[in-house]
Amino acid sequence: MYAMRRELQQYRQSGAMAEAETADPHRLIQMLFEGALERIAVAKGAMEQGNIQLKGNKLTQAIAIIGGLRSSLDHGKGADLAANLDSLYEYMTRRLLHANMRNDAEALDEVIGLLREIKSAWDTIPTLLRQAS
């Protein structure tokens, strides 16, 4: 059973790597949002089950992904928006650290909600660009 889970995980990782290699920049950001949301959800489940190690690992990964989102911001274009998102990503990082230290599921839910809202807006960008041309 464990070997099958490990193989499934390796398959998922290789699929994500293959997609990342061929994805356009917009899709790469979508993948970051999806990855952060997935890891926070797993961390929440681990928190509920008392699995401290898994919770910590997944929250560490989510924080790293949010760091990737922060580093992708273009402060030269849309400086106000980039600054606001940078502050929001920094806030999310603090909330995830708090959730990890205090086993605060509500903080995880808050970050999930914020990420979903930003991802939802990001997901509409290609449609808007296609309609404008």
TrEMBL record:
Q: Which UniProt keywords apply?
A: Bacterial flagellum biogenesis, Cell projection, Chaperone, Cilium, Cytoplasm, Flagellum
Q: Provide the protein's localization.
A: Cytoplasm, Cytosol
Instruction: Kindly give the InterPro entries that the UniProt entry links to this protein.
Output: FliS, FliS_sf
- Entry's Gene Ontology cellular component terms: cytosol
The keyword Aminoacyl-tRNA synthetase is assigned to this record:
no
* GO biological process, any: bacterial-type flagellum assembly
Keyword Iron assigned to the entry: answer is no
Q: Which family does it belong to?
A: Belongs to the FliS family.
What PANTHER family does the database record attribute to this sequence? Answer: FLAGELLAR SECRETION CHAPERONE FLIS (PTHR34773)
NCBIfam families reported for this sequence:
fliS
The protein depicted here goes by the name Flagellar secretion chaperone FliS
From which source organism is this entry? Imhoffiella purpurea
